[in-house]
Amino acid sequence: MLLYTAICPADDYQDALEAFNAGQYQRAGEYWQRCALAGNAGCQFGLGVLYEEGRDRPQSDLQALHWYRRAALNGSRDAQVQLGFIYATGRTGVEQSPVQAFVWFSLAANNGAKNAAEYRDKVAQLLSNEELDSAHLQLDSLGIQYHLQK
Fold first, then answer.
1. 10 Å Cβ neighbour count for 21?
2. Domain map (residue ranges) of the chain
3. What is the pLDDT of residue 94?
């Protein structure tokens, strides 16, 4: 934890977010890059956005997906929801996969992301019983509890 604090002060994420919202993408990218490498999920998500939108760096679906996944696995609800939408729609160069969309929306819902349970339940309606079983196995392996809303 001490190493993280030395590399990425807590204010850096907020400074980067303010820079991003002000259109200062290079400044935001500098902060987020440093903090993302130190393991900050919010900064990893921010880098994913910069790569997906091509702000301050060449647009790269592959890099966007890489940073979204790292952020999601580090607990970023925003990244988990983003991956749910990516797999639901097949954007950023991934093959459309309602099963993976269900898994990521379930993770986000489990972590308290607003509307994630609703998105998960909508995707669930598109899944066959076999696909739903596959998704449940993936969630079980992660120790995630899921409850479909009626």
1. 9
2. 1-74, 77-143
3. 87
